[in-house]
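Sample entry follows:

:::
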Amino acid sequence: MPTIAIIGAGPGLGLALARRFGAEGFDVALIARNAAKLDGLVAQLAAEGVTAAGFAADVLDRPALRSALAAARDRFGAIDVLEYSPADASAGPLAPVDIRATTAQNVQPQIEYYLYGAMTATDEVLPEMLATGAGALFFTTGAGSLYPVPRYGNVTVGGAALRNWALNVGTSLADSGVFVAHVAIALMIADEQPSFGGPFLPARDIAERYWELYVDRSTNELIVTTPER
């Protein structure tokens, strides 16, 4: 069975991706900080006929992230698809800061979170993908990696850095058989219209777009902006 590893797995997009790829016969490795929440997601997927396992790790702890991916590989075999989308943080050193208050000190944790975590995960799975000439790497950010969002000044720096790096990696691997894509989700992930308005899309519909991109590999960047795109 092929395997997808979802880093930053949660009950929204992560679960939807697990269901979508699981429906196509993928085993699913779920990686996130909270082991109890991972156990709940694994139980949900098992009830739906999807083989999954959870591996607890914080993306800021690079050795732990490597260990989690190694454990996933021991459990399922080679990682065929990696999806990296660490959850948004609203408190502590990762709390958003307005662009006019952005400093090297509050940007550095975002670089660690978005860019260095993605680099670490890629370094763990890419050699095997290159050896087989197959595989896919997806890196997910929000609208701030593309457009100015001043109130999330430090966060957008991290997202933009990840986007730039991912697109560069994708270009360098164009003839390798390994597909790389950046996905920017520039709307709310919700089943119903948010109270404050604005575009939204259910997680399952966004997950479908990942699957379509995985199959057709038509672009290295998917921007999810409206229900029609």
In short: The first strand starts at residue 3 and ends at 7. The two ends are 31 Å apart (CA to CA). The mean pLDDT is 94. Helices lie at 13-22, 35-47, 62-76, 104-132, 153-172, 203-216.
